[in-house]
User: Fold this.
Amino acid sequence: MLHSKTFVKKTRGGKVNKQVREHYLRDDIYCGAPICKLCDSSAARLSPSASTILVLDTNVVLNQIDLLENSAIDDVVMLSVVLDEVKNKNMGVYNRVRALCSNSLRRFFVFANEHHKDTFVKEMAKESKNDRNDRAIRVAAQWYQSHLGGAARVLLITNDKENKRKAIAEGISAETMQPSSEDVEMEEVEDLRPSKRKVIYTEHKPMSEITSGLHRGIYHQGKLRVNRYNPFEAYVGSESIGDEIIIYGRTNMNRAFDGDIVAVELLPQDQWHEEKSLSIADEEDEEEDVHLAPSSADDAPRTTNLVQGSAGDTNAVSSRPSGCVVGIIKRNWHSYCGSLEPMPMPAGSGGTAHALFVSKDRRIPKIRIHTRQLENLLDKRIIVAVDSWDRLSRYPSGHYVRTIGEIGDRDTESEVVLIENDINSRPFSSQVLACLPPLPWSVSSEDLANPIRQDLRDLRVFSVDPPGCKDIDDALHCTALPSGNFEVGVHIADVTNFVHPGSPLDDEASQRGTSVYLVERRIDMLPKPLTEDICSLRSDVERLAFSVIWEVTPEADIISTRFMKSVIKSCAALSYIEAQARMDDSRLMDPLTTDLRNMNVLAKKMRSRRIERGALTLASAEVKFQIDTETHDPLDVGMYQIREANQMVEEFMLAANVSVADKILKHFSLCSLLRRHPSPTREMLEPLLRTAAAVGLNLDVSSSKALAESLDRAVGDDPYFNKLIRILATRCMTQAVYFCSGDLSPPEYHHYGLAAPLYTHFTSPIRRYADVIVHRLLSASLGIYKLPSIFQDRPQLTSIADNLNYRHRNAQMASRASVELHTLIYFRKRPTDTEARVVKIRSNGFIVFVPKYGIEGPVYLTARSEKGGGEWFVDEQQQKIKKMDGSLSYSVLQTVRIHMEVVEPQPNRPKLQLTLT
Assistant:
């Protein structure tokens, strides 16, 4: 049966086109229930003994995903209309739902209700999309009820009271997963009690008004990002005005969470804020103290003995656009980890108690929950999901999901890091493990005889990696040729020989996206037999590789490039320290050391040429922990040291990635997976320019080349000065992202940081799924394998790229959070005095960076933290904060002595406190 769907689509040029798509309806889609007498039971996923089958609506899936992941929940029908809605609203939840539906140990069945002739519903006039989808869910539930003929009870689970009412009226069994009516009444009574500071938020504008306002330029759309040092200060990056809009105070945030896509209205210009007037929120500041409109001087979080700069200072710098949230376009609510605010136990036991949940992430407001388990939860890290936030309530309302473990336990706190960043650390399923070849594995005679694969075992191949690296996915060789040139090869683990398109192993890798490196462990994208054995290019064993080989002149000019599947045998697996020691030891003249030195000479010339083109040499505050092998506690911490050996390997990996990008794009101009780095805007670079000007530097940011040359000139008497400037420059950059070549025009492919017109990721397929995709593209461009059919589906490729960006970002955040956790563990018993550098001035203090440990944090200049108190004001031009009497001042990049100590100003929220000594 054929049905036509008509919709309108806006083009990039602003035109609106009417499009018609054919929508096929079928009558042979199975219900998935083995007790059904009409459908093919071989397709059944539900339990043969199921007495109740659950049909879920979208809000239940979005808000109760943690509960659905509990093994007690089974025999669930997941409708395709629900999956589509979840995918559009929260990719993280969608991926978790797909994992549930593909898990053979769980009884979740996906029913394509949008393609079944009996369950598809047409849109009705004046019916919203949400109402249409709710109707589709009810129709599907009713069809199941009729189809199974009473063999099992079909129960619709919904969080929508109106949807439940309609379902019951239509003869469908329905229940909600919301708190009981008694609990809701208690909450409303509590919220509406008169108080000294009654917080009432502005009602959100309806979507129709938001859409109209965005079109007319009245409102501005963007993602809300809450300041990690001040939860009462947020920013919305707006393309429509080309600048970030400051949102100051909970009232102006208007119930928006970090990560929400919001509509913002600009405040009158006389209410705009300046960078200097923004402050660091103190841990003891109460949310109730921060809810006034920014027109009031009382808006800022409480600070002691502070005044702003003079009128002259204020006029010297233009104000930043400030605004307020008028509507939420897309919520970013998910599950949050934290603990309950300590409170006395209520009289009696067994009843429902009200409690405030405090997230570990300070950017998240407290959440009001109701629970009968208060006594058991007070000393636990728990997960809470948000259900709603009424405009008459100071706090959002949510519900308890599950307990993680004891507060302060390292395993519990590490689990919190994974959950908060949506990292899948579950063991690989039996279906995934079944895709692996049996162990022990070795290169076979068939592999060696395969005409697509070249035998390179006679080459002197070696790898250079961090100490203790087991997942070795790249190796190198460098051979002097009779012509005086060099043959240089980059050999990458041939992961796609074992990970086949569409297999459970491939699906799992695609969803995980990347390996995640925490301080004390690694969470693999692929199972360990592949990462540490079969694919790892270990020394003295034969392994399959994908090789890029160049002929290079002594001046590091590439004459020719070859790509091939190969068999290699590494002669040495060196650490960066070992490789550097070999190159530095003039007594060593063996062939391997000579190869290393030749490669290093070539790498330096390639690097120099790349920098001449405008590539940036930035710096990051990467931290290295020494971990006790038995207790897993940190023994030492310090900045990660970069050696010439690191830079040598990096240079040839960059060259391989550029060569592969050029090759695949020539063959597949519309479906290549590339990586771009957008140029930072002038506004993004403004903090760097302001800081540089304050210390007498004039940075040219007109191009990456100009900035690179300016950074090279930024030297002073202090040997750490230049690195600090480069770290600050790094923080002004945009994020590099994966994209499908067909989605953008060639000028947009540019990688700003590398000054490269084309770039991709090819060199780490063991730990990045992007590289797996690129390996398939390269194989197809060489005629080795046919390009998988998914490369014909541009929207699907775009979706994969989006997931890779999401996973890559989350992996970075999880790594940083793991560092912060182990920093707390390390300093808990080691109060320390050390040197720090001022990197950002605020109205009540400054942010410092501690070079020795790679740590950053706030230092307060208030009576609470500094003896004698006194009034301070900010000199924006000189980037200073100084006492009114002129007796003391602190300026950006200044060296200060600080004391570092772990304190707990709020229960269950330890932090590393930095104070001046």
Q: What stands out?
A: The CA atoms of residues 389 and 396 lie 4 Å apart. Residues 207-330 form a domain with the OB fold (Dihydrolipoamide Acetyltransferase, E2P) fold (CATH 2.40.50.690).
